[in-house]
Amino acid sequence: MAKAGTRLAGKANEILEVFTHNVAQFGYDGTNLSDIANELSISKGTIVHHYGTKDRLLAALHTSYMRRRLTEAKLLIGKLDHPEQQLAGLLFAFILYQEHDRDATIAFQREVMRLAALDIDTEGLELRAEYIQLVRDVIEAGIAAGRLRKTDLRIQSLLMFGSAQWAYTWFDPSGDESAEEVGAALVDLVLGSLLVRRTALPALADPKGLAAQTARQCLLEASAESGSGLPAS
């Protein structure tokens, strides 16, 4: 017999999963708790019991999403030796999120401005800031090692995130181009302007190369370890 705490956690996860899917499909404003309750055959009060408000559900989505992304990013950095490889892997991951964790990525990217305005979402905001700083630290390490040219870290990192932010509006995982092929274009664009020696660029941007394959491997490993049940493609 399952323990009560396990059942409660399971139900909370189910609620968050359905909420995430609905936000991805219809946006935050088009998602309501009654529909989620009906889909799960539970009362609206059960959702309120677990999360309180719709805003708190969005905050939970934000936090859970950024926890996964940070886990994967740290795993990736640990598997690659050089900053330019690590940055290429992170860039591939930016696009792979669209395929590997699509509903959550779309929901996150659709509502990122609303998420930023949530006063209650302290942990999610802190995790997002940690993720951005992690990317900046990789670039800074590359500059210190003489592998990447000096640049404005704040602007460069914001340009990277901004370029990936709208991918959900145009990237189709079932389309003609794979996530790795699109990621390769992003790597070429970003590292093409940062590398001190551009001779390394073809290997870094190779959709079948070390950086791309490590990015996919880390997403799969992190998902398996967490038991998230997220699509592993």
Describe this structure in words.
With 233 residues, this protein is mainly alpha-helical. It has two domains: 1-52, Orthogonal Bundle (Arc Repressor Mutant, subunit A), CATH 1.10.10; 55-226, Tetracycline Repressor, domain 2 (Orthogonal Bundle). The protein has twelve helices and no strands. It has helices at residues 4-26, 33-40, 44-51, 54-79, 83-100, 102-110, 112-116, 122-144, 153-165, 179-194, 201-204, 210-226. Helix 1 (4-26) packs across helix 2 (33-40). It is elongated, with a radius of gyration of 19 Å. The model is unreliable at 1-8 and 229-233 (pLDDT under 50).
For the biggest sheet, the summary is: none
Structure classification:
mainly alpha
H/E element sequence? HHHHHHHHHHHH
Approximate strand percentage = under 5%
> How many DSSP E strands?
0
Helix content: over 70%
CATH superfamily of the largest domain: Tetracycline Repressor, domain 2
InterPro entries: Homeodomain-like_sf (IPR009057), HTH-type_TetR-like_transc_reg (IPR050109), HTH_TetR (IPR001647), KstR2_TetR_C (IPR041490), Tet_transcr_reg_TetR-rel_C_sf (IPR036271)
DNA-binding region: 32-51
GO molecular function: DNA-binding transcription factor activity; transcription cis-regulatory region binding
Keywords: DNA-binding, Plasmid, Transcription, Transcription regulation
